[in-house]
Amino acid sequence: MSLIIEARLHAWHPWSHYCEPSEEGPHMDRYRIESGYQLRLADRDAGEKAAHPDLNKKHAGAVLARLNAQLAELQKLLWSDGSRALLLVLQAMDTGGKDGTIRGVFTGVNPQGVTVHGFGVPGPHEIEHDYLWRVHDKTPARGRIAVFNRSHYEDVLIVRVNELVPREVWHRRYEHIRNFEQMLTDEGTVLVKIMLHISKDEQKLRLQARVDNPAKHFKFSMGDLEARSKWDQYQRAYEDAITETSTEDAPWYVVPSDRKWYRNLVISRILIDTLTAMNLSYPTPELDPTSIVIE
Amino acid sequence: MSLIIEARLHAWHPWSHYCEPSEEGPHMDRYRIESGYQLRLADRDAGEKAAHPDLNKKHAGAVLARLNAQLAELQKLLWSDGSRALLLVLQAMDTGGKDGTIRGVFTGVNPQGVTVHGFGVPGPHEIEHDYLWRVHDKTPARGRIAVFNRSHYEDVLIVRVNELVPREVWHRRYEHIRNFEQMLTDEGTVLVKIMLHISKDEQKLRLQARVDNPAKHFKFSMGDLEARSKWDQYQRAYEDAITETSTEDAPWYVVPSDRKWYRNLVISRILIDTLTAMNLSYPTPELDPTSIVIE
What is the distance in angstroms between the Cα of A47 and the nearest Cα belonging to chain B? Predict the structure, then answer.
């Protein structure tokens, strides 16, 4: 959090005592895919914890709680500022942890300011429109955070791997998506796109847990096994999609996600850094509060 | 209408007897703004009737009725084909005739297949989103025709003339709009954009009629006079918007509209030509109709 915002929070804001003093945390640029960079997922260790080498699961909870509180503060600031919006796009292979990320990162944030949208198989109305139609509809209003649990990227991922449209059709979508996201950015929405990167071994463990544990059966589908059988094709589709659409204004982050606690810390920190860089501010009072007497 | 479609209509379709034999009408390319062409509205006569030099108002009704019937046939074909959509964007100065155009051109077409959307001053929810948000939402589903009575172009017209946002903001919208419309095209929607071109003298007559005739008072607003006082700025804004966004896939037509009957004929013909060029077809029967016996 910038010193200016920090100072403002403490000076003006009744909730500011919930906010821990700003810790200048580790920079998450290491996970950001720069524009023009050719992503190779096989070169990236899904199990590393380089930003917190000395931390472990046991002690991560306390750190996450502090980050949650910071994020909650920043969400209030975004809301009060009212001029900008934040869109978080989450993509992952099955069992990658999208639901757990949302739960872990946004717990404690006012749900009035955060809306989560899942994009599954298009419904009968959705399929009658272009693939961005249902997604554009759910983009956040000014002052809000929207989280996309899956997104328009499925239209260059699952649609590509399963050959639901010809190559010509999905391939030109990279440009559509860049353009669409640039328009959103120009008009006031900040985008953060995150791939939860897990290893094939980790997926096996998580799928096995879903099979073995009756309480997790509801999460399992045979389709997961079919998608797993196409692991390499999906990894290549992710590499291409991220390489093609990671831009300065709408960057992708590839976050090591075999360790759930580490994934949550990294994503919280990315969101905090992003919101802080937006230079949000509380509206300037139009009057002198000391002149107001309420009898 | 192409001979192939014509033949199909007559061979397969119970409604086809409503359809007049195809008259190869005058080409409307004369009103199409080619990509890269620098539009100058002052060079274009709003009162001409070059495509029907010998026709007059009295005899235009019968011609329009035939075109209405053709358009109705083509709308059924678009619906039955089910793979494409048509979006008609109508823009004009005040009194330009958007409402009259919609009434004149679409009368007789099944309203289930045609939806008209008006885009006025953005409402409180709309203004919280990017300017394409409300417009994208109303784009037509496959098989449908949508008519936009005003559109996203107001965001580079009235917004520009009244300086509602800085130049930098409205100017980059040309590119957004080109990209947005290209995406719609790539995904199956055909766009036709029409400016109803009237002269300043004709506008004066029409405004005066609204003032003089109590039955037309509801159409009059003082804002019309304010906009009229900025006539030249609006004309320049239209010229730039059309020049910047007329593309091969999403062309603008500037239609002489001082004569309402001529305007309607030209626009009907443009729509008929556009739908005909889409090479729509009735779905191939999956069975041999002669093998079906209904007892």
Answer: 38
Spell out the per-residue pLDDT of chain B, length 295, in tens.
344 444 333 333 333 333 343 456 678 999 999 999 999 999 999 999 999 999 999 999 999 999 999 999 999 999 999 999 999 999 999 999 999 999 999 999 999 999 999 999 999 999 999 999 999 999 999 999 999 999 999 999 999 999 999 999 999 999 999 999 999 999 999 999 999 999 999 999 999 999 999 999 999 999 999 999 999 999 999 999 999 999 999 999 999 999 999 999 999 999 999 999 999 999 887 778 788 888 8
Q: Which residues of A244-263 are buried (b: 16+ CB within 10 A; e: fewer)?
A: bbbbeebbbbbbbbbbbbbb
> What order do you get walking across the sheet with A32-33 strand by strand?
A32-33, A252-256, A189-197, A85-92, A145-149, A114-118
Whole-angstrom distance, CA of residue B197 vs CA of residue B192 = 15
Indicate the pairing of strand B145-149 with strand B189-197.
Answer: unpaired
Distance of CA B57 to the CA centre of its chain: 21
Question: What ipTM is given for this predicted complex?
Answer: 0.87
Reading the block at residue B236, the tokens are: 């320049």
- Report chain B residues touching chain A, CB-CB < 8 A: 125, 128-133, 136-137, 139, 141-143, 169, 172, 176, 179-180, 182-184, 186-189
For residue A71, give the nearest of A93, A100, A102 by alpha carbon. Answer: A102
Strand (E) or helix (H) holding A253: strand A252-256
B15 has which bridge partners?
A: none
Which residue is it, tokens 């678009």?
B78
CA atoms within 13 A on the CB side of B264: 25
With beta carbons under 8 A apart, name residues in chain A contacting B179.
Answer: 176, 179-180, 182-183
Please tell me what DSSP assigns to residue A146. E
Distance from CA of B53 to the nearest CA of A (A): 41
Question: Cβ separation of B176 and A186 shorter than 8 Å?
Answer: yes
* Chain A residues with CB within 8 Å of chain B CB: 125, 128-133, 136-137, 139, 141-143, 169, 172, 176, 179-180, 182-184, 186-189
Q: Which residues of A touch B124 (CB under 8 A)?
A: none
Strand partners, A102: none
Which of B125, B183, B188 lies nearest to residue A176, judging by beta carbons?
B183
The predicted model scores a pTM of 0.89
- With CA atoms as reference, the chain B residue closest to A171 would be B186
Contacts of A142 in chain B (CB under 8 A): 128-129
pLDDT tens track for A19-58: 343 456 678 999 999 999 999 999 999 999 999 999 999 9
Q: Where are the alpha helices (DSSP H) in chain A?
A: 3-12, 57-81, 98-106, 133-137, 158-161, 167-186, 200-212, 222-229, 231-245, 260-277
- The pLDDT tens digits of the residues spanning A168-193 come to 999 999 999 999 999 999 999 999 99
Q: Which of B128, B136, B141 is nearest residue A136 as measured by Cβ atoms?
A: B136
φ, ψ at B55 (rounded to 5°) = -90, 155
C-alpha closest to that of A259 among A139, A125, A101: A101
Contacts of A183 in chain B (CB under 8 A): 130, 132, 176, 179-180
Secondary element (H or E) of residue B189: strand B189-197
